[in-house]
Amino acid sequence: MKKTKIIIGTRGSKLALWQAEWVKSALLKLNPGLTIELNKIKTTGDNILDVPLAKVGGKGLFVKEIEEAILRGEADLAVHSMKDVPTDFPKGLHLAVICKREDPRDAFISGVKGSRGQGVKGKEFHINFFRELPKGATVGTSSLRRSCQLLSIRPDLKIEQLRGNLDTRLRKLDEGRFDAIILAAAGVKRLGWAERITETIEPEVSLPAIGQGAIGIECRVEDDFIKSLIAPLNHDETSICVRAERACLKKLEGGCQVPIAAHARLVQKSETKDSSLFTVHCSLAMDGLVGSVSGDRIIKSHIEGNPKDAESLGIKLAEDLLSRGAKEILDEVYGKNLTQINGKIAS
Question: Would you list the domain boundaries of the chain?
């Protein structure tokens, strides 16, 4: 059934609203006669700001209430940051579209000399690069994945919990509570704060979170109108890579209580004019990581293969990580066998 009005379910943060507005704008460009409204919904993750995500646990902290709104008919689709989306969906819902990815890397942001939230144009940074942090420096992050990898390189650092929206996190940095903070580069860039990024951290130093930088659209499985409406927003390359990463996560059955990372990208093996993603000239390269919370143990693996086999490659990557010692880390963190762990999304 064709509709003239649709409702997008979204969180109310600046970044979430930017993403929802971006999807709205893209849909209106393709469908000028459509009316689109936003339904701003507060999630469990938005309500709990004084407890580290790793201690909260739970599945879908930033999506559960939005999914319930779709099932009740209070929204036709939901726009999510893919790194917040669990690998399993409620009955009747599915991930229909993955939009083009922004920069998937982490961003190192240090304090600015003479700044107290007054902007940074023409200002001089205290510290230009992560490796230049003084001994014992205080770094803010909400992610065990980030802290694990940073501590493996710099065990002297003091990692402190940093929650809240992006503007809140930057304000806390400018107030002098941290020497530096680590955020997802994509969100910083989308909100127009790219000049705040002191250094973009390469995956070799901090492997990104599963789905980081990508926007996903969730809707009802049987809503053919919405599925056809949003289909043009799907980005094939991003979809292949993110689905491979999520297959790895699902096989690991990891949660935000343990550092897990995976990053996939398409690599051209030779110069060719063939733009197809599924040729002998194109390969899917993928890196994965499981680490201990303290960063004293890091298990890494790399795999390459045909993009057609994206999800199978993600599973193989997870199996290799498990065989190299990741299973012991996961069992130790959860205090139970891997088969007993519920599939939760890594932060």
Answer: 1-100+214-234, 106-201, 236-342
Q: Give yes or no on whether 1-100+214-234 and 106-201 have one common fold.
A: yes
% of the chain residues with pLDDT over 70: 84
What does pLDDT average to over the chain? 88
- The β-bridge relationship of strands 5-10 and 35-40 is parallel
List the one residue out of 118, 130, 119 whose CA is nearest residue 179: 130
Report which secondary-structure segment, H or E, holds 327. helix 327-334
User: What is the token pair recorded at 249?
Assistant: 């996560």
pLDDT of 263 reads 98
pLDDT digit string (tens) for 259-294? 999 999 999 876 655 556 655 579 999 999 999 999
CATH 3.40.190.10 fits 106-201, yes or no: yes
Active-site pick, 76, 84, 179, 287? 84
What's the pLDDT at 243? 98
**Residue 213 identity:** G
Cα–Cα distance measured from residue 142 to residue 60, given in angstroms and rounded to the nearest whole number: 16
CATH superfamily of the domain spanning 1-100+214-234:
Periplasmic binding protein-like II (3.40.190.10)
Q: In whole angstroms, what is the distance from residue 292 CA to residue 307 CA?
A: 30
The pair of three-digit structure tokens given for residue 194, joined into one six-digit string: 């790219």
Domain 236-342 of CATH type 3.30.160.40 = yes
Reply yes or no on whether 84 is catalytic.
yes
Tell me the per-residue pLDDT of 286-320, one tens digit each, with 9 for 90 and over.
999 999 999 999 999 999 999 999 999 999 999 99
Give the end-to-end CA distance of the chain in Å, rounded to a whole number.
Answer: 38
